[in-house]
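Bug: token stream looks shifted between consecutive jobs. Job 1:
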Amino acid sequence: MMRRVYVRAYEPERCRSVQWFGGRPAVKFLFDDKAFSFQALRTAGHAACGGADLGEVLVTCEDVPDGNEAAWCRAWSATAARLHRTGDDALAAGHRVSAREALLRASNYYRAADFFRLDDRDHDRESDRLALHSRETFASAAALFDTPVVPQRIPYEGTTLPGYLFLAGPTDEPRPTVIHHGGYDSTLEELYFMVGAGALRRGYHVLAFEGPGQQSVRREQGLAFRPDWEAVVTPVVDHALTLPGVDADRLVLFGTSFGGLLGARAAAFDRRFAACVLHNGIYDFYRLPLTVIPAHLAEWVAESRDEVAGPALAVAMSHSTQLRWFLRHGMWAFGAKTPAEALRACMPYNLDGVAEHITCPTLVLDAENDVVARGEAQRVHAALRAEKDLIRFAAADGSGEHCQEGAALHFHQRVFDWLDERGI
């Protein structure tokens, strides 16, 4: 009897009818399952910067049933391993460019293979293997770039954070430098495909890094996310200013996805940035998952009534691949023990009393079909008091998905033109 109450309280039909975190349908790409569709688009979209080849994406996804996470992992792992062998063989034969290209794609495909492996990531040796191969293949490819790529260990509270310094050219003349971090689930290596490649082509150095809660830092050091992200970014800026070729007057902070909120928080408390790009803007992270659960279930979570919230969330997760992924990943990234705890861990992540303290010019990005953070960019833009702009990417030109996945070149053009126009 009690279980029937929980099922009815969740209203599974609502889960099927509401688009994930928003009301407008997202682009369908190869899958009906919205989570699989978006992740396939995300993986394929990195082709613009050498991280995928469309034919490889199509053939990998061809035999993966909708919502079958085990099949997804097997398919992407097999494709990644094949490209890994291709890259190694090309390198052994002296084919430098071919090796670099194959290894970059392998890195992205290993990342995709690991995406849905969240049942017990702290003890999942296959997840560890995939993550390690993603890092190693990227490192091997980076050593073959035409411009220098320098691995970094950034001092941070008695330990270090991993990073890469991508140099656009010689360091004898200071250049503008992008400091870039991802968000909820992106990897250090993926940051090159998202922003790094576009910045390098335009003469920017790039310092990309991972912080607490993010992939290798969480996996290897056990550090969970923290809301005072300025405590993470400030030592990264300190480190950047010790590096050759970095122009201290032309630093750009770039935060992607959940990093759009984290980056805004950091920019409010560290005034050394010439500009900040929020890709995309998020004002209140806790609000996002609440859009697909009933108000009374959200109240149970907020009141820690986990004896009823827990079973109801379990039913909700069984009806939504994306919600299941979000909460399982949150348990890992926030160090929470249950889905309800993972939801509550999101509560401190907002820009209340923060956004108005940002003083540098800030570009807030939005996407017409953003099913992750619909309406959030407008809230951020409205709260800003510094020089600000809002760019809304349109579905009609193919850039309307969350973080402009699938439209990297158009996204790079709009953002870096905006920076150029401000003399950065």
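Job 2, same session, no restart:
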Amino acid sequence: MRYLTAGESHGPQLTTIIEGLPSLLPITAEKINHDLKRRQGGHGRGRRMQIETDTVEIVAGVRHGQTLGSPVALVVTNDDWKHWTKIMGAEPLAEDVNPEDIKRQISRPRPGHADLVGGMKYGHRDLRNVLERSSARETTVRVAVGSVAKALLNELGISIVSHVTEIIGIKADTSLVEGKSADEIRAIVESDPCYCVDPKASAKMVEAIDEAKKAGDSIGGIVEVIVEGMPAGVGSYVHYDRKLDAKLAAAMLSINAFKGVEFGIGFEMARRKGSEVHDEIIWSEEQGYSRATNRLGGLEGGMSTGMPIVVRGVMKPIPTLYKPLQSVDIETKEPFKASVERSDSCAVPAASVVAEHVIAWEIANAILEQFHSDQLPQLKAQIEEQRRYTKGF
């Protein structure tokens, strides 16, 4: 599978085209909209989420609730576009209009953003041409794409859930997820303001987010994604670009403001001996092969082991601050305080939703690379056969 997205933060719409989905996959706008609403939620979100009510329109590739096998096109309209038609319009400016008179031009790049380097790369003197596309607004349609991928995974008996494990050093008790299914974790997370499984930690997170907002500052954190029901042997060890963990890591780091990724116990492995890291292999007639622990996060040699896949990503504090840092005006070269755009004091809860959906896409894509099928029933049969094969190996 593959997809492309198009659209600017304050443009008329965000668009994506997905190619390679099997036919006969049930898809509805209602389920996608549920995930889009989750992305807009979470404590710490800014005023933009009060302006936009993201809903998807399926404009191609689906008929009567099922995919056709042809490309699926999704559109999310930007409600705020009506206030930006002159500023962001696609038509050339009239001859008597001075480009410098257009409102909201930006010549003061914000530290930590793509503004300055993006302007250098594409030759933009008005840095709005950079920030409009580099904005995390684009993740709206990436969540929509991931929601479609989750629909496919659900049909294959694979569940995926995300939650926040840490915000500015406040750590959730992650043992609370042990023994719980993805559905049980999701029920807890979706009722929590910080999308956290630990109510005590969540309350402290809320306080920290509110304090950061009052101070005009921003804070980051860590999110975790768990994939259950994954068949063993997806991915490959034979080439670097076929390793599943490498693909998942790239997906996580492709999210705006994400700067680190780990699997299983992650960087804790550097502080342990090998006997305290690797998962012992066990077998039972009922379950087949499994692991006594899951410290490696369900991945060995670039392949899924059949254990839950556990991947975490670290999100830096959002660089758009209401107490802006020093920058340099690219026109005058004079020092200035960086421009302020509408932003969030903490987007970690919302980012956990984005992480869930980019991981879902990579999991679904890896499965379709390995189990070729044009029709969903055929794909389901192949996955069931893979499970039978690996259990009895």
